[in-house]
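Here is one chain, start to finish.
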Amino acid sequence: MTTVYLTDVRTRPGRSLLDKIDGLLKRVKAARRVKKDDVCAVKLHFGERGNCAFIRPVMIRVVVDHLRALGCRPFLTDTNTLYKGSRSDAVSHIETAVRNGFDYAVVGCPLVIADGLKGKSSVKVPIGGELLSEVSIARGIWDADSLVVVSHFKGHELSGFGGALKNMGMGCAAREGKLVQHSTLGPAIDAGQCKGCKRCISYCPAGAISVAGKTATIEGHKCIGCGECILICPNGAVQVQWNEAQDHFQKKIVEHAAGALKGKEGRTVFINFLMQVSPACDCYPNNDAPIVPDIGILASLDPVAIDAASVDLVNARDALPGTALKRGSKAGRDKFRALYPDVDWNVQLDHAAKMGLGSREYKIVKV
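Its structure:
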């Protein structure tokens, strides 16, 4: 049974939340995973411009300082997006990161966009998965000696929730890998909801959307399945249509996570922040109200266990009032299935365990 360390958000003079993050890294024995002189990738999400749910840079600085004290050379990293947001190329991505506070003066290490200027710097990694024989992983992740995955745990409209597995699977994939994962999606317009505002046109990277009168149309042969139109439609008019079984999307995420971890066995650490648990992906240009009170921060050596513990901890809480969660608000109810009834988030955990990435069986040790 895997140990998952938990620190709550209660503090006192002399034991701040920053102190507690450092304490978690000591308890999880990061020093055994990250070695002297390692070039260590710290994988996180820098936040879309307008979204404020990302992990605070001052908290990331604690992770960086801990790694530097071990004698390694950390860098903060993420990969470029498929959609036309504020992180679709390395220049705009770094500009957005700095705007959101991830400047060298704050975080204490360089920022490197792992898949290069336009998402083409990648390595084909053989994984022998159920759906994929190989995956396209960002070269900056592949070339790193060790990996610390720092994830903001939240809901996600395509995978139910997003944690360590999603952060690695989608977030460590180069553009080609992201396309493969999204190939199961075929967004469709609900004409009754569409107002013809044309916002989706400006965000579509494939030029697949047009508007005639007051209704948008998606040309299926042009659509690359990035899902950006689903994210940014202000009227909820763009609906997910799965081109094949919905669970394939989650399995592809997991199989890309396996590619990100390959060659780094025994060289990884996972940290999940269960704070400001928003209902949807951090790729939105805004973040909605958190669905539950802040719970704390988890650390583990097992990405499956830390995500399993995270989802259980969220579901064990009473929901906050006045959020996107309209049902299933009581403690013990499935908050993520209430948000996204058609998405069974168990798929990603079960598939990751089947592939040997970790175990759903865990015990929590409070720090």
